Amino acid sequence: MMNTNAPMAGSEKLTVSIIGASGYSGAELTRLLLRHPHAELEHLYAFSQAGNRFSELYPAITCDKTLEHYSGQCESDLYFLALPHGEALKLLPALEKAGKAVIDLSGDFRLRSTLEHEAFYKQTKPETACLTYGMPELFHERIIGARSISNPGCYATSILLGLAPLFLSETENRVTQVNCTAVSGISGAGRSSKTELSFSEMSENMRAYKVGIHQHTPEIMQTLGTSVTDPSFDFTFTPMIGPFTRGIYAGLTLRLEKPEQAETIESLYRDFYRTAPFVRVREQMTEVRHVVNTNFCDIHIASSSKTGSVVIVSAIDNLLKGAAGQAVQNMNLMFGFDETEGLL
């Protein structure tokens, strides 16, 4: 595919702006883009925090910009939308009409089925509101040259990268069942103040939430070639929140039609991800601390049995590989930069 988003000529940089820069994902985007060699960060937009200096909200990030109120400006080459679900739907048409590239970090454009979107997000959207799904390890060629990208969800990233080789490789051994328990750090719930996320509520505590109704469920099923309404395998997802700031730790228990040795599965995974710079198939058990503050996804094939069950563990940083880091990775592919630029 021809890359219609070719890099700028000479020393000219790609101009970028962030709408929703005051949240955790927006702050991580700001940090990454400030140091990106091919990007010039022009505007940081916010709503309730407009008028405040960015460095007042995030003193650890050296940035003297003031958060501005967004009122339809279309000055930059690329816009990152780091907004609550439902807001990007309102902004995308005008940005696309102005010829701007967009990477949306919300769930507004991930699902092809409007019925599933309404059921899981409790919002309606036009049938045409579906963008290129930006998971570089699975859809590398589609992302290159795309003008608008829907960035994957954080749980979906950790789970899909842990499952994809067994679903998307040329293998006759079918997966019949997946049980997933994934624990997210508190930052996954966003920056807004909520009593149930306070220190006194979450310290030395853990709890499940949205069991059976989490919005990343149809995203996972769609990417694996099926749907929640007519699934080709049994899928159970239990999201949990744990007493740590950032990271997602996913335990995937699969049932295969035919037993498979752990070594054979690990070999399949290494071959599947051989050209993926941010996926590491680990011989040893991975941990959240191995990936925090990085754009890596670590995967470990924990065990397999004679009955066909397999246990796979994956870990990511929910704010980087699960959000801002993956968004910059998508930007790099869209505009012809090295995929790892600004991320290592």
From TrEMBL:
Signal peptide: none annotated. GO terms for biological process: L-arginine biosynthetic process. It holds the Pfam family Semialdhyde_dhC_1. Its EC number is 1.2.1.38. SMART domains: Semialdhyde_dh. It catalyses: N-acetyl-L-glutamate 5-semialdehyde + phosphate + NADP(+) = N-acetyl-L-glutamyl 5-phosphate + NADPH + H(+). Residues 15-146 form the Semialdehyde dehydrogenase NAD-binding domain. It comes from the Bacteria. CDD domains: AGPR_1_C, AGPR_1_N. The keyword Amino-acid biosynthesis applies. HAMAP family: ArgC_type1. This is N-acetyl-gamma-glutamyl-phosphate reductase. It comes from Chlorobium phaeobacteroides (strain DSM 266 / SMG 266 / 2430).
